[in-house]
């Protein structure tokens, strides 16, 4: 009888231990599964749209900003301020820019609507105008991006704005004669001294820059 009771107690203890083992909680997944992965992919980088333009360097506003007059737009809207990117700011002094230099540059507009300039290339350095008699433009240096200097003649039409003039080219059909020319920095500085009038016969030198603009370097009215 005692042996039977001991056997019964032993069986009951075994059943109790098996029940406890079944109650142990399964491991909890703390990674969040697919929802956690989706959360990590929700952040995307915003692509910046780079713009390339050209113009005339005006000067440095402060340690962070410079001013450039954009080519090809009305004078009252031409001046723009540009914030130096961190990389360009570190090397800016080494560029040795001078007021009046003709430059080409890359920039983008950041999330605060600021124009951030990332690179500047000097197309032609400004040279102070030499004293002239009013019959010809000051001497000029050949710009670095000028593959070929073209000499042509025609009839002066007038000044379109502070950066551009119009000339009717000689020897071409009337419908195609009118051409716009951007004044080089040197010629722009002494242009008023030339005293040009509509209808004046002129001889001039120009080149086509990287932006396919006709950049006029000199004008001669005595030839």
End-to-end Cα distance, whole Å, is: 142 Å
Overall outline = rod-shaped
Mean pLDDT across residues: 79
CATH architecture label name of the domain at 51-124: Beta Barrel
Strand composition percent: 25-35%
Overall strand count: 10
What characterizes the major β-sheet? 5 strands, mixed, barrel
**CATH structural class of the domain at 51-124:** Mainly Beta
Q: Helicity level, as a percent range? A: 25-40%
Radius of gyration: 37 Å
Strands of the widest sheet, in order across it, are 1-2-3-5-4
> Helices and strands, in N-to-C order?
HHEEHEHEEEEHEHEE
CATH homologous superfamily placement of the domain at 51-124: Copper binding periplasmic protein CusF
CATH topology of the domain at 51-124: OB fold (Dihydrolipoamide Acetyltransferase, E2P)
Sheet/helix structural class = alpha+beta
| Tally of contiguous helical segments | 6
Low-confidence stretches are 31-45, 132-138
Map the helices and strands.
Blueprint lengths: L1 H21 L10 H8 L10 E10 L4 E6 L4 H4 E6 L1 H10 L6 E8 L5 E10 L25 E10 L4 E6 L4 H4 E6 L1 H10 L6 E8 L5 E7 L3
Parallel strand pairs: 3-5, 8-10
Antiparallel strand pairs: 1-2, 1-4, 2-3, 4-5, 6-7, 6-9, 7-8, 9-10
Q: Can you characterise this structure?
A:
It is a single chain. With 223 residues, this protein is an alpha+beta fold. Among the domains are: 74 residues, Copper binding periplasmic protein CusF (OB fold (Dihydrolipoamide Acetyltransferase, E2P), Beta Barrel); 71 residues, OB fold (Dihydrolipoamide Acetyltransferase, E2P) (Beta Barrel), CATH 2.40.50. The protein has six helices and ten strands. Strands 1-2-3-5-4 form a five-stranded mixed β-barrel. Strands 6-7-8-10-9 form a five-stranded mixed barrel. A hairpin with a 4-residue loop joins strand 6 and strand 7. The protein is rod-shaped and about 135 Å long. About 10% of the residues have low confidence.
């Amino acid at each position: 009888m005692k042996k039977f009771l001991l056997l019964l107690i032993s069986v009951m203890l075994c059943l109790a231990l098996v029940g406890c083992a079944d109650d142990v909680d399964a491991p909890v997944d703390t990674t969040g599964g697919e929802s956690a992965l989706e959360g990590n992919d929700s952040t995307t980088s915003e692509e910046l749209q780079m713009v390339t333009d050209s113009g005339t360097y005006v000067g440095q506003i402060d340690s962070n900003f410079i001013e450039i007059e954009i080519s090809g737009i009305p004078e009252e809207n031409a001046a723009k301020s540009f914030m130096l990117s961190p990389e360009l700011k570190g090397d800016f002094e080494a560029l040795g820019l001078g007021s009046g230099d003709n430059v080409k540059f890359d920039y983008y507009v950041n999330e605060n609507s600021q124009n951030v300039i990332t690179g500047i290339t000097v197309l032609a350095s400004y040279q102070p105008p030499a004293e002239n008699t009013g019959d010809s433009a000051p001497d000029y240096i050949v710009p670095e991006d000028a593959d070929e200097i073209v000499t042509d003649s025609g009839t002066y039409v007038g000044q379109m704005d502070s950066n551009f003039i119009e000339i009717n080219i000689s020897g071409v059909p009337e419908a195609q004669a009118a051409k716009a020319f951007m004044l080089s920095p040197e010629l722009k500085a002494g242009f008023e001294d030339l005293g040009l009038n509509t209808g004046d016969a002129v001889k001039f030198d120009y080149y086509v820059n990287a932006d396919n603009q006709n950049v006029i370097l000199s004008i001669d009215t005595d030839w």
